[in-house]
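Narrative summary of target 7.
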Amino acid sequence: MVLNAVTGAYGFSGKYIFNHELFTFADAIENSRVLFQAVRHARVERLVHISIANACETCRPEYFRGKAIVEQVLEKSGLSHEILRPAVLCGKEDILINNIAWLLRRRPVFGVFGDGKYKLQPIYIDDLAALAVAQGRKRENTVIAAIGPETYTYRGLVQSIVKIIGKPRPILPVPPAIGLAAGRLIGRLAGDVLITRAEIEGIMAGLLYLDAPPAGRTPLKAWAAEHTDILGQKYASELAQRRDRKSAYADL
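Modeled conformation, tokenized:
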């Protein structure tokens, strides 16, 4: 019997995307190191690791640098492995797409950082899971750009969500500093961290875009159109999911 494992905490809509008293990037790196050792000792034959698009040691945002370090630890482990690099997730438990819709439902205007022309490529979570299962059957050590079939500008993504949920709103360009201040205020009111400076830097630098063929098949528009009853109806809290995953996901 072939034993497989899937590891990784996903980026902009997942875990360890900012340093906090509950978790840090250093924690994520060390936890991954220990996990890889445990996988090796358990004689797991194949490991599929979910990283992030454009993970690199020279990237300014610490999250992307940390992901690159974890990839290097895995490559040196001697394990048969696959590295999947998604950019943005969409699906029932996503945070970024859901909270854009949540803001559009509750605010008279929506601000995008700068011109909003930077790109991102959402992949449906079930497509990512299917890709992980398929790669678990292989043995070559490779890296796959785990991106969906659509490429959006950030502004275009917001416009698409506006149409899908039927909440027309003016979409205004705002300086990143002002957008960060507004995001921090909303985060405090929600008891969460809505956005960080590093996240803004990462998305505006194009780190959620890969010039590669799509690995997923499901368009974001198709999924969102079928789930307008839940998309953005409730705020998805990053910190709540860290503290109590079961309760945080109960109503999603």
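The CA atoms of residues 145 and 212 lie 7 Å apart.
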